[in-house]
Amino acid sequence: MVISEQQVNNEVIIETIVGRFDQNARQEYKWRMDLAINAGYRHVILDVTEVTFIDSAALGWLVLSQRKLNRVQGRMSLIVQDGIVRDILNITEVGDWIPVFRTQQEALKAKWEKS
């Protein structure tokens, strides 16, 4: 797994995950999320369009990250294309906890419409 980031502004950051998002990714994912929240970002957009596999541990981290952001009046959004990852998010109902979008533009627009 590789994670890269793109700062949109002082409140919004996009974290892009490439590869397998599984138990082996825990340390880096947690470090990145804690760093973003502690740096003051209140909208973390997680782009998982290039994730090839996601396991139950990663699904749990997504929900925990959303809860952490909620505690600081923040939120997370997911960017997911059609495929196995989207199917897993639908089956597990993670999308009920975290808004799911198809593009970065949709996720950014939705954030500003709610502000």
TrEMBL record:
Q: Which residues form the STAS domain?
A: 2-111
Q: Which domain of life is it from?
A: Bacteria
**NCBIfam families in the record:** ant_ant_sig
Record's family?
Belongs to the anti-sigma-factor antagonist family.
Name-wise, this protein is Anti-sigma factor antagonist
Q: Which PANTHER family match?
A: ANTI-SIGMA FACTOR ANTAGONIST TM_1081-RELATED-RELATED
Question: Entry's InterPro entries?
Answer: Anti-sigma_ant (IPR003658), STAS_dom (IPR002645), STAS_dom_sf (IPR036513)
